[in-house]
Known about the structure:
By secondary structure, this protein is mainly α. It is built from eleven helices and no strands.
Amino acid sequence: MPAFDSASPAPDSSQFGVSSGHEYDPLFAGSTDAPPPDRHFGRVGQVPWTLSQTIVGTAVTLVPWVTVLVATQLTAPPSAANTKPLARNVDIASGIIFFIFTAVVESAFLVAPLYIAVARRPPGMTRRQGLYALGLRPTPLVAALGWVVVGLAMIVAATLLYQWVIQVLHLPLQTNADALAKRAKLEPFTVLGALAGAVLVAPICEEIFFRGFAFAGFLRGMSVWPAVTLSALLFGISHGDIGSLAPLIVFGAVVAIVRWRTGSIWPGVVIHATNNLIAALAIVAVLTQ
């Protein structure tokens, strides 16, 4: 069962209102960690925020996120303690609340990217250009579809291989999708609320942060493969799911490569949403048995 976790030509430097002789950093004046402003990173284009801003934005987002996630898991009652089905009306209300809660919590991933890339964008750079720099930009349809197919195939293959290894080695690992499948019989509408959030909300918020902001920002201080690896590791860790860590890291690496090759996060959003939808349908199938 899949684990949950969501190219246009590079613009020229004049689009960002900077020249090759001036480096502007709205949060860290005088920073020297940025390459010349006319440097482009493949189809990702020019990234107007610096490596320092990327590190700060990533830290202030993920440190509280992971802390709350770990604290929640440590204080949650064991799943075995909840063996009675929820009353239908309570379950429906819980599902709605869970979806809203997911949407609110996931929006935390948007704060740093929108603040740094849009609200504090360099002088002369429009909001639209800031959003484009985050990967919210069009990309040729045929090429994008090709990367979506290839990316999904790689992720599914990695997931199946991971599940095979777990079974062969009898590893005591359980993915978050497995946990949801077990709860589905007791709390079907609550689980459906969680699935809806994973399919409709998480792909957009997480792709903007991890591939649009963090991965692109890491390119300001490292080459492509270290940036891919670091962003994928952070993506996997952010889910707080030991049982799914390996496939989540592979997922993060694949989608970062797709972002690099297409210059847009939209193919990654489609891959992310489709992956989560496949897992969701597998869990819904449990409810129909």
